[in-house]
């Protein structure tokens, strides 16, 4: 299966009418309805009218990608349009705007969630290349756009695997690193967790905000009691604590070749937000719930 399988001339609009993004999206929806691709037009039209921020990926001055999971369609459908002049949208409450000439509308039923994510991600990656964008906007007819080789060159796997989405060469920390240094590193990097690896690169634990919060809470509560004498048996000076003292040793690790759907189910069942990706026990990547969204839609 290739990206070109989802681009049909009867669902391409060149030129795409509309001076605003909402007008352009409405024209694409009308084309899908005319092509018989929407089972319940009123449902999808109502969803477009909501204008949810999470339904839109704005790719700089290259393209707008509108994507919806809805039972208004029975199968995944794609509509593509090229406007004569760039259409604009406002960026939040600022005076800044974003404009582009390419507008895509992708809709899929909930049962095709995996395929939907693959297609959205593939379009986002392809249209991140300025040369591809230039080629697309230069096409004079729907037939010419649908026949572009660049779309036929993008193959979609039967299912996504962890390697497709994971962050490679992730940040990590040594079990012997001072806890204070590790916490500061997490704050500065804006990450909520770090895999703990030994000198051989093997995962031996996980340090997350959960462990840090528990440590800080325990330290706070102890301040209300008489402090034990320094050096007393079983007492560890908070200033000398290392990552090893606080990290969790029960870590859910996954393989780069595991299906994303399987891993996502495990993360949900075990209430885990992030997992190290290992090969033969050694850290090769990191996957978070946020990664699954950000990587796929290119935001």
Automatic annotation (TrEMBL):
Top-rank taxon, per record: Bacteria
InterPro entries in the cross-refs: CBS_dom, CBS_dom_sf, Diverse_CBS-Domain, PTrfase/Anion_transptr, PTS_EIIA_type-2_dom
Lyase keyword on record: no
Keywords for this protein: CBS domain
Pfam families, sorted: CBS, PTS_EIIA_2
Domain (CBS) ranges: 166-223, 247-299
Domain PTS EIIA type-2 span(s) in chain numbering: 5-154
KW Protein transport (keyword) present: no
Name this protein carries in UniProt: CBS domain-containing protein
Native species: Roseisolibacter agri
Lineage, top ranks: Bacteria, Pseudomonadati, Gemmatimonadota, Gemmatimonadia, Gemmatimonadales
């Amino acid at each position: 299966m290739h990206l070109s399988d989802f681009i049909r001339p009867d669902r391409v609009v060149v030129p795409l009418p509309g001076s605003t993004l909402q007008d352009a999206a409405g024209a694409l929806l009308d084309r899908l309805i005319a092509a018989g691709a929407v089972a319940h037009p009123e449902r999808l039209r109502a969803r477009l009218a909501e204008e949810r921020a999470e339904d839109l990926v704005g790719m700089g001055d290259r393209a707008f990608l509108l994507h919806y999971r809805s039972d208004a369609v029975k199968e995944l459908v794609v509509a593509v349009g090229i406007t004569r002049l760039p259409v604009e949208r406002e960026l939040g409450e600022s005076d800044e705007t974003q404009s582009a000439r390419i507008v895509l509308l992708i809709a899929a039923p909930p049962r095709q969630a995996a395929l939907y994510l693959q297609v959205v991600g593939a379009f986002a990656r392809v249209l991140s290349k300025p040369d591809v964008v230039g080629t697309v906007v230069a096409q004079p007819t729907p037939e010419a756009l649908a026949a572009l080789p660049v779309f036929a060159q993008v193959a979609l796997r039967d299912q996504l695997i962890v390697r497709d989405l994971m962050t490679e060469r992730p940040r990590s920390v040594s079990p012997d690193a001072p806890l204070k240094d590790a916490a500061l590193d997490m704050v500065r990097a804006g990450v909520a967790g770090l895999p703990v690896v030994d000198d051989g690169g093997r995962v031996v634990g996980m340090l997350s905000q959960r462990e840090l919060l528990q440590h800080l809470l325990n330290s706070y509560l102890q301040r209300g009691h008489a402090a034990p004498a320094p050096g007393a048996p079983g007492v560890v000076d908070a200033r000398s604590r290392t990552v090893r003292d606080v990290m969790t040793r029960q870590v859910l690790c996954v393989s780069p070749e595991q299906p994303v759907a399987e891993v996502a189910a495990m993360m949900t069942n075990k209430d885990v937000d992030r997992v190290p990706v290992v090969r033969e026990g050694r850290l090769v990547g990191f996957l978070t719930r946020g990664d699954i969204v950000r990587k796929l839609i290119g935001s």
